[in-house]
Amino acid sequence: KQLSAVKAVVRRLNPTAQVVTSSHSKVPLHRVMNTGLFSLDKAERFPEWRQSVIENNHVPETEEYGISSLVYRTDRPFHPVRLYEDFTERF
To answer: pTM here?
Structure first.
């Protein structure tokens, strides 16, 4: 149900977009990187896209979902096995 809703929003924003469905964000990079498929000229023709981006009604995801970033620096690297175990246990 959620996937259908997301796809519907994407279709409203850009009816010609290629939608790549994934599980746990696993997508072959060639499907999403350097595809040459985006055209600003074409995107501006879609009213939903224009309203969202061009007319500045777009709320950045960082604000909408409270996303922030952190840069962690240290001279001592993470222990690879403990780091892997921690991530696999949590996620």
So the answer is: 0.45
